[in-house]
């Protein structure tokens, strides 16, 4: 795939986990990247991006933008042919889900796409949605045709009070399609990843994925890990999927980007060969009844969540991403080892 370098592209939330690898792909292809960030003066947070740009044929330019401020992406979007909207909060520990999740996700999507609809140069918008906009719990797979999630399915089980992150991604993507269908300037393409794993480019990654993997090495899961059904995708494979969504001529619609149908225990066990002799990585299954009993006390995990996800298989169809975007998926063992090694080197696990 050849990327056009005739016009710059915009990446929102450019300092994020996924966005970092996306920016790297674009810069190395010679594309000029307009990077929208909260504070262009925070050079430490931007250092990994500027370092990539120094040795890549592409150029990076930083712009100040705020998800909740209408019109704040206008300057960054000028002259851009493609807009990659990756900015959206990913956290499960929130006190005010409306303020911390729903508002930035939905209003941010509205602000970016309405600006795109008013910017003559924009021909395509790629929104980083999520498989969370398709399902809430692994048990939802059982209700899907053939027991497998597809792009035709929308999440109907999340709410402000239950799994608000999934609810925020659902509302945000629906808002994106609503705006796209009421204009004719750009084509909307969405990328719907499962849990993202793999190494980060930033020195201090904040994605919830790192909190999960941290517990696999700090002793939290020493007694075992639950077979909590999930899908996973390597962040580097996901970045390539974004590039394809932005530049493959006939790319359209939603795309499940998930490399593997697995569970939390299997991810932990992927670390045994390389790290099992030095770190307390999980080796066995934590019985569902134990997770159900202690989850609400120790980890704030609701019993409804345990019932709907532990010991329940997660299945999704990723064939469209392979066919339409040409995505290939590396083994999750490689992703987990690369991620864990980076965390060791960053001093995450004190021994």
Return residue spans where pLDDT drops below 50 for at least 5 consecutive residues.
none
Sequence of strands across the biggest β-sheet: 3-2-1-4-5-6-9
Number of helices: 13
CATH superfamily: NAD(P)-binding Rossmann-like Domain
Distance between the termini: 45 Å
Helices and strands, in N-to-C order? EHEHEHEHEHEEHEHEEHHHHHH
Question: How many structural domains?
Answer: 1
Given helix and strand content, the structural type is alpha/beta
The protein's oligomeric status is single chain
CATH hierarchy class name: Alpha Beta
Broad shape: globular
Give the amount of beta strand, in percent: 5-15%
Whole-number mean pLDDT: 94
**Second rung of CATH, namely the architecture:** 3-Layer(aba) Sandwich
Question: Roughly how much helix do the residues carry, as a percent range?
Answer: 40-55%
Summary tags:
NAD(P)-bd_dom_sf; 351 residues; 40% helix; NAD-dependent epimerase/dehydratase family protein; alpha/beta; 7-stranded parallel beta sheet; oxidoreductase; NAD(P)_dehydrat-like; 3-stranded mixed beta sheet; Rossmann fold; 13 helices; Epimerase_deHydtase
Structural commentary:
By secondary structure, the chain is of the alpha/beta class. It has one domain: Rossmann fold. The chain is built from 13 helices and ten strands. The strands form two sheets. Strands 3-2-1-4-5-6-9 form a seven-stranded parallel sheet, sandwiched between helices. Strands 7-8-10 form a three-stranded mixed sheet.
Itemize the secondary structure elements and their pairings:
Layout: E1 9-12, H1 17-28, E2 33-37, H2 43-55, E3 60-64, H3 74-77, E4 82-85, H4 97-117, E5 124-128, H5 164-181, E6 187-193, E7 195-197, H6 208-217, E8 229-234, H7 235-247, E9 253-257, E10 260-263, H8 264-269, H9 272-275, H10 288-299, H11 303-309, H12 319-325, H13 332-345
Parallel strand pairs: 1-2, 1-4, 2-3, 4-5, 5-6, 6-9, 7-8
Antiparallel strand pairs: 8-10
Helix pairs in contact: 1-2, 1-7, 4-5, 6-13
């Amino acid at each position: 795939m050849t990327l056009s370098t005739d016009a710059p592209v915009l990446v929102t939330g450019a300092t994020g986990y996924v966005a970092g690898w996306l920016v790297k792909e674009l810069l190395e292809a010679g594309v000029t990247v307009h990077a929208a960030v909260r504070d262009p003066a925070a050079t430490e947070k931007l250092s990994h991006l500027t370092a990539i740009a120094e040795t890549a044929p592409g150029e990076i330019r930083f712009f100040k933008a705020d998800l909740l401020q209408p019109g704040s992406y206008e300057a960054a979007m000028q002259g851009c042919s493609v807009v990659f909207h990756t900015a959206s909060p990913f956290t499960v520990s929130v006190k005010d889900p409306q303020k911390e999740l729903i508002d930035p996700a939905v209003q941010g999507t509205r602000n970016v796409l309405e600006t795109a609809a008013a910017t003559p140069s924009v021909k395509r918008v790629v929104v980083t949605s999520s498989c969370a906009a398709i399902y809430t719990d692994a048990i939802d797979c059982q209700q899907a045709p053939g027991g497998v999630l597809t792009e035709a399915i929308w999440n109907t089980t999340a709410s402000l009070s239950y799994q608000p992150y999934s609810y925020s991604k659902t509302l945000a993507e629906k808002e994106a399609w609503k705006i796209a269908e009421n204009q004719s300037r750009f084509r909307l393409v969405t990328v719907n990843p499962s849990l993202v794993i793999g190494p980060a480019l930033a020195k201090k990654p904040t994605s919830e994925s790192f909190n999960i993997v941290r517990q696999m090495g700090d002793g939290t899961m020493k007694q075992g890990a639950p077979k909590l059904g999930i899908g996973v995708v390597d962040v580097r494979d996901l970045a390539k999927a974004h590039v394809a969504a932005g530049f493959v001529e006939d790319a359209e619609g939603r795309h499940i980007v998930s490399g593997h149908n697995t569970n939390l225990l299997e991810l932990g066990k992927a670390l045994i060969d390389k790290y099992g002799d030095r770190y307390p990585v999980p080796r066995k299954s934590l019985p569902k009844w134990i997770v159900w009993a202690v989850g609400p006390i120790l980890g704030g995990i609701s019993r409804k969540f345990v019932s709907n996800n532990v010991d329940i298989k997660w299945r999704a169809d990723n064939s469209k991403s392979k066919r339409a975007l040409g995505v290939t998926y590396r083994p999750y063992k490689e992703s987990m080892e690369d991620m864990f090694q980076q965390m060791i080197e960053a001093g995450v696990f004190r021994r």
